[in-house]
Write a structure and sequence with these properties.
250 residues, alpha+beta, five-stranded mixed β-barrel, two-stranded antiparallel sheet, 8 helices, elongated
C-alpha cells in the first residue's frame, strides 16, 4: 500500500526511546484508532517534534502512513498539553491506566468510535481536578463494551425490573433484583449503595457526571467490584493498573 500524508486529530501517550534519538509514541486518534508513530529526532535538544509529542499532548498531527505498522510524524499544529496529567503523579497514573485499557481493547488503526470522546472527556475532567477514581471507574465500566463482555446493569437479569434494590452476579453477568435474591445463589451480597453507584457510572453519560463527592469507603468498595469484573471476564495484567494499586497504598 502506498504511503500518504494524512492529518489526524489525536492525543499522545506511551512514549519510549527508539534508535539513537528517536521516540516511538502511541497516538489515540478520532478517526483512525490507535497507532504508533516514529518521532524522528525527538530526543535531540530543542526538537520541536519532541516537544509536541510529550505524553498527554493533543492536537493535529501530520503523519506519513500506509495505515499499518509504524507511521512517521512529519509535523503538527495547534498542539496543547493536559499539563496536570503530565505533572501530577496521581492524575498521571489514573490517566495512563485509562489509556492502557483502551489500547488493549482495539487493534491498531481500528476506528474506536465514541470511545475517543469518552476518553478525551475523562482526561479533561481528571486534568481539571475532578475525582479521578470515580471517572476511572466510569471508564472501566463503559470499556467493558469494547471488550465484548459488558454486564447487564440496566435491568434485572431474571425479570427485567429497572428500579428497586439490586445485587450483582459475576457468574450470570448482571444485576439481580431483590425479588429473586433467594433464587439466585451466585450473587455477591453487595451493599445496595455499591450496586447503585456502579449502575449510575455504567449507564449515565460522562457529560452528566458533575463534580460529585462520593463517600471514600463506598468508592473503594465499588472499585473492588469493578476490579473483580475485570479479573473474572478478562485476562489483563497491566503494569499501569499495578502501579495505580501500589500508589493507593501510600
Amino acid at each position: 500500500m502506498v504511503r500518504e500524508l494524512c492529518e489526524v486529530q489525536g492525543l499522545i501517550f506511551k512514549r519510549k526511546k527508539y534508535k539513537e534519538a528517536d521516540v516511538l509514541a502511541k497516538i489515540m486518534t478520532k478517526d483512525h484508532g490507535i497507532f504508533t508513530i516514529d518521532v524522528r529526532g525527538a530526543l535531540r535538544p530543542k526538537s520541536r517534534l519532541g516537544a509536541a509529542t510529550l505524553n498527554f499532548s493533543y492536537g493535529k498531527y501530520i503523519v506519513n502512513t500506509n495505515w499499518k505498522g509504524i507511521s512517521t510524524l512529519r509535523t503538527f499544529k495547534d498542539v496543547k498539553q493536559l499539563d496536570q496529567l503530565y505533572l501530577d503523579l496521581t492524575k498521571n497514573a489514573y490517566s495512563s491506566y485509562v489509556l492502557d485499557l483502551l489500547d488493549h481493547a482495539f487493534v491498531e488503526y481500528k476506528e474506536i468510535g465514541s470511545f475517543y470522546d469518552l476518553i478525551m472527556k475523562a482526561l479533561l475532567k481528571i486534568n481539571s481536578g475532578e475525582d479521578a477514581a470515580i471517572i476511572t471507574q466510569m471508564v472501566q465500566l463503559k470499556l467493558l463494551n469494547a471488550y465484548g463482555v459488558a454486564p447487564q446493569l440496566d435491568r434485572c437479569l431474571i425479570c427485567g425490573k429497572v428500579q428497586g434494590t439490586f445485587d450483582y452476579s459475576l457468574e450470570l453477568g448482571g444485576i439481580i433484583c431483590s425479588d429473586h435474591f433467594n433464587s439466585v445463589s451466585q450473587r455477591m451480597h453487595l451493599d445496595p449503595k455499591v450496586v447503585a453507584l456502579i449502575r449510575t457510572l455504567a449507564l449515565v453519560d460522562i457529560d452528566r457526571l458533575g463534580k460529585v463527592k462520593i463517600n471514600p469507603q463506598l468508592k473503594k468498595n465499588s472499585g473492588k467490584v469493578i476490579d473483580r469484573m475485570y479479573a473474572n471476564y478478562l485476562d489483563l495484567n497491566l503494569k499501569t493498573k499495578k502501579f495505580l494499586d501500589e500508589l493507593a497504598l501510600f
